[in-house]
Amino acid sequence: MNSKLATFLLQHGNLTRRYFLRMGGASLALLGSSRLLADDREREPQIQRALDALETWLTRPDDFRDVSRGNPTPHSLPIEKRKEVGLTRDTWKLEVVSDPDNPAKIRSPFTTEKNSAFDFQGLMQLAKKHAVRFPKVMTCLNIGCPLGNGIWEGVPLREVIWATQPTRDLRRVFYHGYHNDDPEQMFRSSLPVGRILEDPYDLPPVILCYKLNGQWLTPERGGPVRVVMPEGYGFKSIKWLSHVYLSNIAHANDTYADQNNDVDSPLKTFCATLSLPAKVKTGQPIPVTGYAQVGISGLSKVQVWVHNDQDELPAGDRYFASAPWQDAEILPAPNIWGGDVPSNRIPIPTIGFDSETGRPKTWPLRCSLVHWAAELPGLPAGQFTFRCRTIDEKGIAQPMPRPFRKSGHASIEESPITVEK
Questions:
Q1: Predicted local distance difference test score (pLDDT) of residue 9
Q2: Rounded Cα distance, 307 and 339, in Å
Q3: Pairing of strands 207-212, 215-216
Q4: DSSP reduced 3-state for 191
Q5: How far out from the chain centre does Cα 302 lie?
Q6: Residue 74: DSSP 8-state
Q7: pLDDT in tens, 73-91
Q8: Which of 193, 256, 394, 412 has the fewest CB atoms within 10 Å, counting from its CB?
Q9: Is the pTM value of this prediction over 0.85?
Q10: Average pLDDT of every residue of the chain
Q11: Domains in the chain, ordered, with CATH?
């Protein structure tokens, strides 16, 4: 197991036992039957341990994986320096100005020079009327496994943009955070203004985020204020936000655009394992647990397939569409959310959750995570390869419809299993 994956698995655990007991026994039919779930028989200890160790749905803020840029990383600066450069709630300032190279017409820019930069107190005033919360999985476009899943709270970015009174020539919004006052370290991103001013396809708004799981954003998570784009990969959710530029340019200026990445690609739907034994005995049931990232195209199924390495793979079938896939169990919404949310309650109101019951209106939720589980029957001695994939709400199997690496990870995971006598 590589070190990144090992770290990811180490950071996840402790989903309540009773949550999984509702599953009953599981029996995946790779050898003839199509039935996945069986009765409530007593499970072998190793199977129950695998279920008990599954991660919670929400990630504790301190347990998010960190891929922060900077030398030194801004969150590692001493508190005195963070105060000096505006990385605390009482010193944070946001400039919202016209792009000097491709200017948009705005009447009331927020500038440090004129002592009119937007501050945290102003943000909290807007929050009294406009605050929103929504679940989102934070994923790096160039890393396979997500960094964490949380409830993000903030004010729609459009509220601040409208406060500058734009009038014309506004096509794109650029933004970046603090990176040691070093132009070479600056990490920037951008969005078409239409995505900021409107929320298409019932998506939540792009926000100026100040809380995660009901807690103030820590410096490690990008506090005091960061951008969070619901359907975007992590590079769209810039940390330590300090500058917003309203521009008449027609294309992106993202740092990742210079690295051959598809900077406007929304989150993909895909799945991977969280636990799968590498070696088992013949006839021994094999527990498998995993997660699925529910991308912009939704999720209808998670499927699994065990292939005997002595057998030929389907010919001319790059993505194994004709393989004998079987449905795994997509686990329902949990009773224990995790993430250190106060009183184990999703804050109300939160987009996607019922305001009276606190339960999700639909499941799984787009742009977040869901868990799945299966129990493979015993196999004969030999070498096998386990694969898993998702089917989105349009019936399209992973890694389609966008199999390209530079638009986000979606490769079908392959895990070896050795079965010994």
A1: 38
A2: 36
A3: antiparallel
A4: strand
A5: 18
A6: G
A7: 999 999 999 999 999 999 9
A8: 394
A9: yes
A10: 89
A11: 3-54+268-420 (2.60.40.650), 68-259 (3.90.420.10)
